[in-house]
Automatic annotation (TrEMBL):
<dbReference type="GO" id="GO:0004591">
    <property type="term" value="F:oxoglutarate dehydrogenase (succinyl-transferring) activity"/>
</dbReference>
<dbReference type="GO" id="GO:0005739">
    <property type="term" value="C:mitochondrion"/>
</dbReference>
<dbReference type="Pfam" id="PF00676">
    <property type="entry name" value="E1_dh"/>
</dbReference>
<dbReference type="InterPro" id="IPR011603">
    <property type="entry name" value="2oxoglutarate_DH_E1"/>
</dbReference>
<comment type="similarity">
    <text>Belongs to the alpha-ketoglutarate dehydrogenase family.</text>
</comment>
<dbReference type="InterPro" id="IPR029061">
    <property type="entry name" value="THDP-binding"/>
</dbReference>
<keyword id="KW-0809">Transit peptide</keyword>
<dbReference type="GO" id="GO:0030976">
    <property type="term" value="F:thiamine pyrophosphate binding"/>
</dbReference>
<keyword id="KW-0786">Thiamine pyrophosphate</keyword>
<dbReference type="GO" id="GO:0045252">
    <property type="term" value="C:oxoglutarate dehydrogenase complex"/>
</dbReference>
<dbReference type="InterPro" id="IPR001017">
    <property type="entry name" value="DH_E1"/>
</dbReference>
<dbReference type="GO" id="GO:0006099">
    <property type="term" value="P:tricarboxylic acid cycle"/>
</dbReference>
<protein>
    <submittedName>
        <fullName>OGDHL protein</fullName>
    </submittedName>
</protein>
<feature type="domain" description="Dehydrogenase E1 component">
    <location>
        <begin position="2"/>
        <end position="179"/>
    </location>
</feature>
<keyword id="KW-0560">Oxidoreductase</keyword>
């Protein structure tokens, strides 16, 4: 599996979650063996001036915190973009580290249907309106080179338009939306054929007292013989054994029993997060 994340420039520079996931990216239990980050750098954040949006020249500078290589590429040059993307993929597969592709481009229209960028960026948008769209620019180059003919280009465009039009027409015939088709992992038996949830009642999940006692005893013992255990810890374990004997439960023991019962059914339990390894809680 190779993870690819697509970002806008404003989000990449300004959302804390980007910086946080970079810092998590190389931790022993969290690494994804490298993510390819693709930043569509087109002033997506309401065409805010870069100098008003961040303190560094590039939105991708936050990736420098983990020394990820950053490729800045002119998005008006599709072949350069393809080349950079394949280098990024090779880097990720060779070194299993994050890598960033910064597509330096522009946005022809506003942030949404209501937004007129000429209000805030008149000079830049005069330039953008003169700019030949990348598809036309690249097609003209290929036709001039003799790589494709005008007819082949027009056929490709027509083919793509046809795919979109047919899909649009088909979408009008859809009367039922099957929710379960859109779930990552449809739970069998959770929805009926119309996508409505079936009854929400849960099967009983209780376990026998005998099993609870067994888990309580295991949770209050040390698996290794002749193991020197900290006196503070042995006090906690003794109290836990005492509670199990007296049929009492506190939060920690209840949690142990929940995990233990799931493990007993052969289901893997992974704990992660603050203070887990230290066992403070």
């Amino acid at each position: 599996v190779m993870s690819i994340l697509l970002h806008g420039d404003a989000a990449f520079a300004g959302q804390g979650v980007v910086y946080e996931t970079f810092h998590l990216s190389d931790l022993p239990s969290y690494t994804t063996n490298g993510t390819i980050h693709v930043v569509v750098n087109n002033q997506i954040g309401f065409t805010t001036d870069p100098r008003m949006a961040r303190s560094s020249p590039y939105p991708t500078d936050v990736a420098r915190v983990v020394n990820a290589p950053i490729f800045h590429v002119n998005a008006d040059d599709p072949e350069a973009v393809m080349y950079v993307c394949s280098v990024a993929a090779e880097w990720r597969n060779t070194f299993n580290k994050d890598v960033v592709v910064d597509l330096v481009c522009y946005r022809r229209r506003g942030h949404n249907e209501m937004d007129e960028p000429m209000f805030t960026q008149p000079l830049m948008y005069k330039q953008i309106h003169k700019q030949v769209p990348v598809l036309k620019k690249y097609a003209d180059k290929l036709i001039a080179d003799g790589t494709v003919t005008l007819q082949e280009f027009e056929e490709e465009i027509a083919k793509y338009d046809r795919i979109c039009e047919e899909a649009y027409t088909r979408s009008k015939d859809n009367k039922i939306l099957h929710i379960k088709h859109w779930l990552d992992s449809p739970w069998p038996g959770f929805f009926n054929v119309n996508g409505e949830p079936k009854s929400m009642s849960c099967p009983p999940t209780g376990i026998s007292e005998e099993l609870l006692t067994h888990i309580g005893n295991v949770a209050s013992s040390v698996p290794v013989e002749d193991f020197k255990i900290h006196s503070g810890l042995s006090r906690i374990l003794k109290a836990r054994a005492e509670m199990t004997k007296n049929r009492l439960v506190d939060w920690a023991l209840a949690e142990y029993m929940a995990f233990g019962s799931v493990l007993k059914e052969g289901i893997h339990v992974r704990l992660s997060g603050q203070d887990v390894e230290r066992g403070t809680f």
